[in-house]
Write a structure and sequence with these properties.
The protein has one domain. It is built from 11 helices and 12 strands. It has a 12-stranded antiparallel beta sheet with strand order 4-5-6-7-3-2-1-8-9-10-12-11, with helices on both faces.
Length: 305
């Protein structure tokens, strides 16, 4: 049973991206060098999303765990709507804006019972903060199930203004536009202005040497007519570096193709891939069969029954 629960949990990762709503840059910090966006709403309406929910409802252990989370912590996985995160690149710091999935009254009751939590105010808004643990954290519950989080009250304050449309927000990036244009409905999207983020983060010298060759990059996942597509885009500092990265990626894909020829399951799941380079820009795309993923899950559930 544990194996099938893990299998289903892992399968949710690409499903978070299916037919999602566009990223709203008004909810991204104006100083952001990285951002991540996930939309959960349309996933539940898709063919594979419906299959996943129906499958979990037939598993007493899964239903019991979800009900326990809902009753004890107010977490309802069926009600998550979206999550948008952004930051400058400074380690363990950023702003998160999430809607749905959490009973904010239950959350507040729970944190009030913790000795380590302090309550402050930003205008009329209460902010709950804690320094316990490896990293400090703070959050503020807003109306309509929106929760704003960050490492401290200052970050939460900016997040509240972003959530309410009262703060200057991110103006965008050329490569982000390119990435978003790779598919009609990118639901999971991650982007980083690597050059900008590196200025705010202390990195291992070896990692820094590699990242100095990359200006920006990102990836998106979305529905693509019976397949789930994964697209990655990178802009290098010069064409020669891009050629070197292209060669490494092609080598990796060649190894996948060799394994695919011997692995029937991989052959069914991986619909195909493509690699394209234009000057300093590199695109990599992989397509995964929704039907094959569902077939695999059905077999795993039969084994666990």
């Amino acid at each position: 049973m544990k194996k099938i629960l893990v299998t289903i949990a892992l399968a949710w990762i690409p499903l978070l991206a299916i037919q999602a709503k566009p990223l709203d840059l008004s909810k991204v910090s104006r100083n952001a060098n990285w951002l991540m966006h996930m939309d959960f709403d349309a996933m539940r309406k898709s063919e594979i999303g419906s299959f996943m929910l129906e499958s979990m409802e037939k598993m007493p252990e899964a239903v019991e765990r979800m009900e326990k989370m809902k009753k004890k912590y107010g977490v309802d996985v069926d009600e998550f709507s979206y999550l948008t995160m952004s930051g400058t690149g400074e380690q363990h710091k950023g702003i998160a804006i999430m809607k749905g999935g959490v009973d904010t009254d239950m959350l507040v009751d729970f944190v009030k019972s913790q000795d380590s939590v302090e309550v402050s105010r930003i205008g009329k808004q209460k902010v709950y903060s804690s320094d316990r643990g490896r990293h400090s954290m703070a959050f503020a519950p807003l109306n309509k199930g929106v929760i704003v989080g960050g490492p401290d009250a200052d970050y939460v304050s900016e997040g509240i203004d972003l959530a309410k449309g009262k703060a200057p927000s991110y103006k965008g990036h050329d490569l982000l536009d390119v990435l978003a244009g790779q598919m009609d409905n990118p639901g999971f999207l991650f982007f980083a202005d690597v050059k900008g983020a590196a200025k705010n983060h202390e990195l291992d010298p070896r990692a820094m040497l590699m990242l100095e060759k990359v200006k920006a990059g990102g990836m998106a996942v979305g529905d693509d007519g019976g397949s789930i597509s994964f697209v990655a885009v990178m802009e290098a500092t010069d064409e020669e570096t891009c050629k070197q990265v292209e060669a490494m990626v092609r080598g990796g894909m060649a190894m996948i193709d060799m394994r695919k020829a011997k692995d029937k399951r991989l052959e069914k799941v991986l619909d195909g891939h493509s690699i394209k380079r234009d000057g300093k820009m590199l695109w990599v795309k992989m397509k995964f069969s929704v039907e094959a993923i569902m077939d695999h899950l059905e077999r795993e559930m039969r084994k666990a029954a």
